[in-house]
Amino acid sequence: MPVAHRAPKPESPPRARPAAPSSPWRHRLDRTVSPYAYVAPFFLLFAAFGVFPLIYTAWVSLHDWNLLSSANPFVGLDNYGRLFSDGYFWNAAFNTLSIGVLSAVPQLALALVLAHLLNRPLRAQTLFRITLLLPNVTSVVAVVVIFSQLFGRDFGLVNALLDLVGIDRVYWQADVASSHVAIAIMIMWRWTGYNALIYLAAMQAVPREIYEAATIDGASAARQLWSVTIPMIRPTVIFTVIVTTIGSMQIIAEPLLFGAQVSNGAATTGGTDRQFQTLALYLYEKGFRSFEFGYASAAAWVMFLLVVVVVGFNYLLVRRMRGGLDV
Amino acid sequence: MGIPRTGRRIPRPLAPMLAAALFALTACGGGSSPATGGSAAPAEKIKLTVGLFGDFGFKPLYEEFRKTHPNIEIEERQAAYADHHTNLAAHLATGAGAADVEGIEVGFVSQFTAQPDRFQDLRQYGLDKRQGDYLDWKWQQGVAPNGAVVGLGTDIGGLAMCYRTDLFKKAGLPTGRDEVSALWPTWDGYIETGKKFSAASPAGTKFFDSPGEIMRAIIAQAPVGVYDAQDKVVVATNPDVKRAWDLSVRMIQEGLSAKIGAWTPEWNTGFAKGSFATIICPAWMTAYIQDQAKNAAGKWDIATVPGGAGNAGGTHLTVPKQSKHPKEAAELVDFLTSADSQAAVFKAIGNFPSIPALYDQPDIRDFTKDFFNGAPVGKIYSDAAKNLKPQHLGPKEGDVRTAIGNGLGRVEQGKQAPEQAWAQVLKDVENVG
After folding, report:
1. Model ipTM?
2. Within this chain, do residues A103 and A224 fall inside the same structural domain, yes or no?
3. B263 lies in which domain range?
4. For B165-233, where are the E strands, in sequence order?
5. Which 253-272 residues of chain A touch chain B by CB within 8 A?
């Protein structure tokens, strides 16, 4: 850096560096400390908005902490004890897993197929790609409100179509299965295109020659997807599985707004019988409707551990998944 | 290299750190900077924010207030009912973000008055002098257990029953409000009328929207509700609550309900389409109906409520402790809840005053509303307010009501038999208390 070797001037012009080059310790300090200083902003922000809340939540979870009250007695692990015997918490855990599986598996499979179809010379390719991303840039509230109307009991389009083909109308919010399917469809609508784009990007890095060889060997398109593409983009598949898993463990807006179609109370409880209350919604109910912050914090920590376990499980599962080609 | 250095006198390793620190400072600064300073000089420009759920008809009053306080600018924020109270709790807990004047509905008020140190004690600003103006129970709802005056009441929700005269006519029922009132002196009479209505009603029309608000009203008519005076939940032992439950279940079983939950989008559609013929009608509901069923002017009318007087809903205005201009905010609360303001709001949108001196004032007593077929709303709600027996509300009133409402919802959705649903309600309520 030539600037550093310029002679020092007593009255520093705008661009000159005031520090004297004859100060070796400063230079050394620069060498050793600067890199850390440059990455520090991220870590400072992460500490403030990531680590600190995590630890503070753990601290809060050890108290009988009302959101508004100023006296919050220490209760040790009582909140955790209550939580583990709380049927509604485990109900929420089940709902979260169920909605997660129902949305993630078809979503990722569909994304793979879509990406595979687009991974060939097509007219108006950019248009297709933008279209894929469109549902994702739509606000979640708008998506859920529209879908909730489609799934409306009395005036919903889905029920009207069911009526047309002679199938009984469904009260989508009333049952566990129907509500989970409805919510899973909303999630799929938003995220399939996004994952397809990620897959598409990965697929374009796969060398053409392999496909050409496969074609010469007489492999069909489906066979090529299964035996060439998927093994070649496995790191990307693992990435999307992990991100989708984390995302589906945190679902809250969909069930909240879907339940708001039933009544005010059924919104935070995720249905009259908690048919579709997810973990995040349960946490919201406890923390922000009942103001039991200590208890909600304990739930948040257990939820965090559950996310780690589920992500770890999925990671192992996908890593063991092997196509025909070993990479 | 051509990269210019910007931080001239700052040693290199410190520059990014400083930048981060600066960033953090500016990021936090938005919430805590004393933007308009203290209230020492009276002529200083001050901005007050008012946080409400829905329209309270305050806009013309702000203009009025500014005539005596020209230096004060008022900004109103509105949110949905549940969001408003949730956000308020979060803002109070974190000590930032609350408005200078916050409205709190009666379903939440005891939860907030239980924490008086989060609010300004309005006695500091001399507002305890207003106690004599108010219905005593309404005043007490805004007072904390330690005696601090947390909020001053705006309106009360004396009960009545709104009904569609056109649908009643089609079903062969009388349409005059006195005759209709005579149909249902009791809730049993209401159910019988409902059965007659259903037998001859036009297709796609039910007798009422959903039993949730009706059950809330029946409970409100009892001397004791879901809490006793010692803040103990008495859902399991209070026969009046069980009676309200049984009546509501009977209404569902008779097929009178349109199964449209209150405050849902389908409910709003239901108003517009005329999906239900009656709705429980606290005074503030008239404002809502007028807004939702614009095409039905003159078709609605108001009869007395079955089963006697009761209160459902109503609001208090509070000043959070974190307000930077508590004195001015308290003055605004005083003004917005004054007798004149309450009378003006009633005439403009329908929320009924909580100041009994107004009830015998001719302009209130003789007030009628064209939208409701010229119904004498002044007389109806004055009578409702005078006959009202106050009921004690407990700290988790909202959670208890949600548990009961969800139980009714399960019966309505056909998920559970009534006994099974009630058993689960009792279990849920036990966990709340």
Report:
1. 0.79
2. yes
3. 158-312+375-432
4. 206-208
5. 260-269, 272
